[in-house]
Amino acid sequence: MAGQIKFQNVNYVYHEDSPDAHQALKDINLTLTEGSFTAIIGHTGSGKSTLIQHINALIKPTSGEVSVGDYVITHKTTNKNLRPLRQKVGMVFQFPEKQIFEETVIKDIMFGPLNYGATEAEAKQAALNAMDLVGLPQQYQDQSPIDLSGGQMRRVAIAGVLAMNPSILILDEPTAGLDPRGHADIMALVARLHDEMGITIILVTHQMDDVVQYAEQVVVMSHGEITKQGSPQDIFADLKWVRQMQLTLPTSAEFAEQLKLAGFPLPSRPLTLTDLTNAILTELGANHG
Ligand SMILES: Nc1ncnc2c1ncn2[C@@H]1O[C@H](COP(=O)(O)OP(=O)(O)OP(=O)(O)O)[C@@H](O)[C@H]1O
């Protein structure tokens, strides 16, 4: 059932009918083909999380429709028939500890399959396979997930999703808070799930080097709208100074020099990756908000 993901004229308003109503998505039209790897970028508050949560119907459009294969989600969709969709669309949230509920690693990973009607033996087999896929040694199975490192905890969260055998995987900043090695390991895992298993990947990220390295398609969001869309090569084509830096030297003096040449006001503190991200987004026309 996986198939392509399609947003057609999707609007989403938080707290509709209240004085606090806020339109977070505006007339979104977007098609993601089966097996593709898409990065979604944009300043904080631009609507990235709201957008991705439509794909497994955690959020339903205020108007317009989202289809995933032949599954159609509109404002009328009820929670009744969502199981096949939720099984096929796995979501890994930014903070894995929010996604981990059970007292041991194996129980946590078995939770999804059990919830979807697998027997204990089937769920255990699915969980062990998933641990294998994400590179979690089996001796971790009886450990408490919250005692693991940030990187290992993320593997548990990803394994929990993979145990459901999804064909679409949505990752909302899956490496936030990890050190460079943990970051590289998780991104290598995501790339493998895409390349070797053909899983459709949708990655929300602030890491522009990951966009360039892994994504086939980039969606730039600003103020609830998609402002640019294309291959990383096309999207970043004009950002010669970024390409020269190969997006790897966010704190170097050379990077600061490039930013200065490109006309960005430089802070007096050392530059960070966030400066790089913001500079790129600003140059792509994704204004704050
Ligand atoms: N539950 C909510 N109630 C009201 N407004 C919300 C809610 N969640 C998000 N918003 C608003 O909707 C807009 C889009 O938020 P969203 O979380 O989708 O952005 P984002 O691009 O994912 O941001 P970030 O990078 O910080 O995760 C923002 O203006 C945000 O303040």
How is the secondary structure organized here?
Blueprint lengths: L4 E10 L7 E11 L4 E6 L5 H5 L10 E6 L2 E3 L9 H6 E4 L12 H11 L4 H15 L15 H13 L5 E5 L7 H18 L2 E5 L3 H7 L2 E6 L2 E6 L1 H4 L4 H6 L7 H9 L11 H11 L6
Parallel strand pairs: 3-8, 3-9, 6-7, 7-8
Antiparallel strand pairs: 1-2, 1-4, 4-5, 9-10
Helix pairs in contact: 3-4, 3-5, 4-5, 5-6
CATH class call of the largest domain: Alpha Beta
Strand percent estimate: 15-25%
Principal-axes geometry comes out as globular
Rg value: 20 Å
How many domains make up the 3D coordinates? 2
- CATH topology assignment of the largest domain: Rossmann fold
How many alpha or pi helices? 11
Helix content: 25-40%
Could you give the order of the helices and strands?
A: EEEHEEHEHHHEHEHEEHHHH
Number of strands: 10
Outline the biggest β-sheet. Answer: 6 strands, mixed
**Cα separation of the termini:** 35 Å
Looking at CATH, the homologous superfamily of the largest domain is: P-loop containing nucleotide triphosphate hydrolases
**Overall mean confidence score, pLDDT:** 86
> Architecture of the largest domain, according to CATH?
3-Layer(aba) Sandwich
Structural class: alpha/beta
Which ligands occur here? adenosine-5'-triphosphate
Low-confidence segments, given as residue ranges, are: 243-251
In the sheet with the most strands, the strands line up as 6-7-8-3-9-10
